[in-house]
Amino acid sequence: MSENNLTSVVITRPLARSAGLLTRLMELNLRPVSMPLMDTAPARNPVAIRQLIDTILPLKWAIFTSITAVEQTFMLVSPKRFAGTGIAAIGASTARALLQAGFDRVLLPEAGYTSEALLETPELNVADTGKAAIFCAPGGRHLLFDSLSKRGWQVFDIPVYRRIELTPEQAVRDEIIKSMRLIVVFTSAAAMAICQKNLPENIWHVLRRADWVVVSRRLAERARHYGADQVHVAQGPDNQAIAAMVAAVARRN
């Protein structure tokens, strides 16, 4: 048995977004363990959200924070309603979803895939009084809202979907306890918070001693806040970048 076979890699992404990463890790002879900590669902009151969108249109910029935000928004309103609106995305995957929805141009930072990077684009890093809407889940992307507001923009959070917290199954907890070597992948601060909240203390203790792979410097700071000692930042949030960092960490252990 190779050294990699002894390494379990806990993936905390929602199940619908983790299949490709699980496959890639198996190709690298690693042992992926799916531990989704969140699922998504439509907004509780879609009629009210649709009315809110109708009220604030037209916009100068519409900012989409995830693939789910794209999917849920255009289940409520037609993309045609955004004619004349600048369309922005956090992350290449979200940008691709917007292009597939029919938009010809999507603002995406040349480097980076975070709120910070988007805020540094010339289009948004200006004082303005135009209207900008952030299509997201409740409680997310405070930096975007606060930064644009300070620049004079009229900013609206549009909660087009919601997150549902999940408690890991007992089989997953057992896998964590018995793992000889452990790497944990976090792609959001919300997943870290749910992990601490919903896992028994003994499981959380084991996870904090593991190697953590995260997808941004901001998440690395959050990881250290939660007590992780070994934190490694992938080159990006895509499966290839995450898998490459996981493999590098596994080789070093």
In words, what does this structure look like?
There is one protein chain. By secondary structure, the chain is α/β, with parallel strands linked by helices. The protein has 2 domains: 120 residues, Rossmann fold, CATH 3.40.50; 123 residues, Rossmann fold, CATH 3.40.50.10090. The chain is 41% helix and 21% strand. Strands 2-1-9-10-11 form a 5-stranded parallel β-sheet, with helices on both faces. The two termini are 16 Å apart.
What's the alpha carbon Rg, rounded to whole Å? 19 Å
Unreliable parts: none
**What number is the mean pLDDT?**
92
The CATH architecture category of the largest domain equals 3-Layer(aba) Sandwich
- CA-to-CA gap between the ends? 16 Å
Total number of distinct structural domains: 2
Strand count, sense and closure of the main sheet? 5 strands, parallel
Strand content bin: 15-25%
Q: How many distinct beta strands?
A: 11
- The outline comes out as elongated
- Give the proportion of residues in helices: 40-55%
Structural class comes to alpha/beta
Q: Strand arrangement, largest sheet?
A: 2-1-9-10-11
- CATH-defined topology of the largest domain: Rossmann fold
